[in-house]
Write a structure and sequence with these properties.
alpha+beta; five-stranded mixed beta sheet; 3 helices
Length: 151
């Protein structure tokens, strides 16, 4: 019987000096908005992730899931597999609310807690989770929807 050997190989096509810094929720929102289909932001709920290096510079933007008008499934296994493959040091999640409502639901807050716990185990922290529309954003972590002792 013959088995394949697993090898880890990584080639970075963009020098660190050419990557934008993501130092605030506003920086993240601006990047997400440039990478969102503005024809669907008010129609279909979608989730994306920013993959960041140790200096909080953008490495990649990835689409995680697309759903319907009232929800989408965000699987931590998918998100963290992307982060591991890209060798990200941290992540920022965002999803849109087609309704235009920027307030997080209890499901949004619980999802954030789940990602924080998984990120802690994998040493790939969730820096923030944004709810976005074409008119603005709300930060679940930075705006205090999750208390400091919950982190």
């Amino acid at each position: 019987m013959k088995f394949e050997e697993v090898q880890l190989i990584y080639r970075n096509g963009t020098p660190a000096s050419n990557r934008p810094s993501v130092k605030s929720p506003k920086d993240a929102y601006d990047i997400f908005l440039k990478n969102w289909d503005m024809n669907q932001i008010g129609l279909i709920e979608e989730c994306k992730v920013l993959l960041l290096d140790r200096s909080l510079r953008l490495m990649s933007v990835a689409s995680v899931s697309k759903g319907g008008m009232s929800g989408t499934i965000v699987d931590p296994k998918v998100v963290f597999s992307m982060a591991l493959k890209r060798r990200a040091s941290s992540i920022i999640l965002a999803h849109n609310h087609p309704s235009g409502n920027l307030q997080p639901s209890q499901a949004d807050i619980q999802l954030t807690r789940n990602f924080m716990a998984a990120g802690k185990v994998l040493q790939i922290p969730l820096e923030d989770h944004l709810i976005i529309t074409n008119e603005g954003y709300n930060s679940i972590i930075s705006d205090g929807y999750i208390l400091a002792n919950d982190r």
